[in-house]
Amino acid sequence: MQFESLSLTTEPNQEDAEIDPVPVEVPLAKTSLPPSASDGGIYLIQRSNSLVSQKSEELQKTLLAHRHERQLIILQDFPDPDALSCAWAYQLIAQQYDIKCEIIYAGTLSHQENIALVKLTNLPAQRWTLQNLKTKDLSSYQGFILIDNQGTTSQLLSAVQQAGIPLVAVIDHHSVQADLKPEFIDVRPYVRATATIFTQYLQSGLLTLDSSINQHVKCATALMHGLRSDTNRLMQAQEEDFMAAAYLSRFYDAQLLNAILQANRSKRVMDVIERALKNRIVQNNFSIAGVGYLRYDDRDAIPQAADFLVTEENVHTAVVYGIVHDEDDELEVVIGSLRTTKLTLDPDEFIKEAFGQDSNGRFFGGGRTGAGGFEIPMGFLSGGNENSAYAKMKWEVFDTQIKQKLLKLVNPKDNPIQSE
Ligand SMILES: [Mn+2]
């Protein structure tokens, strides 16, 4: 019965040919937005269904080839509900092939909702810092997986690569960030949440959800949360996302989801939002705010402040940034978040254009539909903040530099990426 909503098209058609070799050729988000309704809704669904069944089959083959192995699922340093829930779904799928997965991230769970999600569902994610990574025996893992990221937002990537662990799979909905060569790849930037992709895998039979299994109910709840949070409570969801949510609605626990969503904002997050409000400048429907210094654990206040600023009348895009410092390591990094409700603004393109690349050719950030982020390491300029005059000066330099780079794009005279 579960399969009926995905009557899988096996007949190849014109549309398939266009998207068939999906891997690295996936076009950037802007050009890969789904065709409009005038292209024929049914056609679109058929195309998407055949892609889903093709990808599910490929993933199944990959899992079969790796039976009885141990794998690492690497999430971004600050994993969000979409990443966490999908990693769990992968772990449950892989279990059927006797593949044991550890879900790991290097940073912190800094958003109160993420902490609530992990605690209330017993979601099996672990923090592996660069420090305690040294105590791990990486040779016991035969593969690693990137979910809801492509390695560019994880400090763990290089250590795992250096240990010679092969990249088995990349499953993500961000635009292609890096030239990775995994055995299996499913990167679909036009899908609003990785949770949608995983729900489609479940629906196509990679794991049969059972309401009487507590873990399945919790994982479905987590996926529902991931899907909702990446689609602005479904307001930016598209047909595929709604279909996925509809499927999850058969299994998820509404009360549990409600409990996760009830998590309150901490005072420190409220303080950062207050600073963002006070410091914001609004130009051409862009709201830009620097919030100064933040503790590492409060890092997630930045996207929350951006979520808040973008709700202002006449604002379609908000960018909030600050200097995040890690007290132990004296490490500082500028972290920023972008939120937009403007469909024609591609956050990935915007951030890459605004901040460019580092000396290794790595972009300082990227994005997906509606949201993006960036991280600029401060290197030699890290620390020394006991001297408050120096700390203030340093902030002003970074603040000014970031504003200059952003305003170049915001100002219609100088740049093509513009509001009409
Ligand atoms: Mn996501």
Outline the structure in words:
40% of the residues lie in helices and 17% in strands. By secondary structure, it is of the alpha/beta class. It has 2 domains: 4-261, inorganic pyrophosphatase (n-terminal core) (Alpha-Beta Complex), CATH 3.90.1640.10; 268-410, Roll (Diaminopimelate Epimerase, Chain A, domain 1), CATH 3.10.310. It has a 6-stranded parallel sheet, with helices on both faces. The protein has a 6-stranded mixed sheet with strand order 7-8-9-10-12-11, sandwiched between helices. Strand 11 and strand 12 form a beta hairpin. The protein is globular and about 60 Å long. The N and C termini lie far apart (47 Å). Residues 1-39 have low confidence and may be disordered. It binds manganese (II) ion. Manganese (II) ion binds at residues 82, 148, 173, 193-194, 230.
Largest sheet: 6 strands, parallel
The side-by-side strand order for the widest beta sheet comes to 3-2-1-4-5-6
Named CATH architecture of the largest domain: Alpha-Beta Complex
Class from helix and strand fractions: alpha/beta
Protein name: Phosphoesterase domain-containing protein
InterPro entries: DDH_dom, DHH_sf, Oligoribo/pAp-PDE_c-di-AMP_PDE
